[in-house]
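Morning F.,

Quick status update on the modeling queue. The single chain you submitted on Monday has been processed. Sequence for confirmation:
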Amino acid sequence: MINSGKSFSLVPANCIALLILFLTFTFSSCADFDKPLMVMVRIPEGSFMMGSYETADNGVFPPSLEKVSAFYMSKYPVTHEQYEAVMGARPSGSFNHDKNLPVDNVNWYNGIEFCNRLSILEGLSPVYSINGSTDPTDWGNPSPIWDAAIPNLKASGYRLPTDIEREYACKAGTTTAYNTGANITKDQANFNSHYGANTTPVGKFGSNRWGLYDMHGNVAEWCWDWHPGWSNSRILRGGSWTDSDQKLRSAYRDNANPGTPSSNYGFRVVRRP
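Structure tokens below.
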């Protein structure tokens, strides 16, 4: 074989360049929404001062030192697209079904059902059981019976965050009224109807220190716990697109009847590590 001294390639140089460009674009432009259904962020274990010395209203409770074990939390509130993929339909009363908007018009019962259905879809052990069953198809229609749901915290599946976990994750090591500092602006969250009568796509604003988005505003998020100051009410955290900045504070607890849906209410999910 004669060596002409010239380089030889089975692929033309211009094709190689196009291939490199394609691979660079593919692996540098993958958004979170191109990944598995739920993008989760690991929240480290630690201790923090829960509550606040603020006395503006009874939505904020006096400080108490709390220790939190590590867990995973969804990077964004559950979206319409994710909700439909798991539940088979979007909430009928929702005013806007754009796929990347946080799901709204959901009650607390919808939240625990979503968690178990998602766990089953992914082959994980469901957290919640009602009347001895973890299969939501056995639960019947949402009713006060669902208030007796029993959580198995050793299960590998999804669940709603506890009140403590939600505040801890929102603060992300901060001690100010908001994880953005002493104040919050419309460039940092969707609140006080700054963006009209609507939610905004998840991830529109910056994340907190732990990489979690929309921890303030957009939709108030259901937590597992009963509210300590209101009967028959579950806790909501973070404030919504209609709320004033006061209800967006990291330490603020809102509440509602677990069977009450609202265009202000959504949720996110957590898992054990």
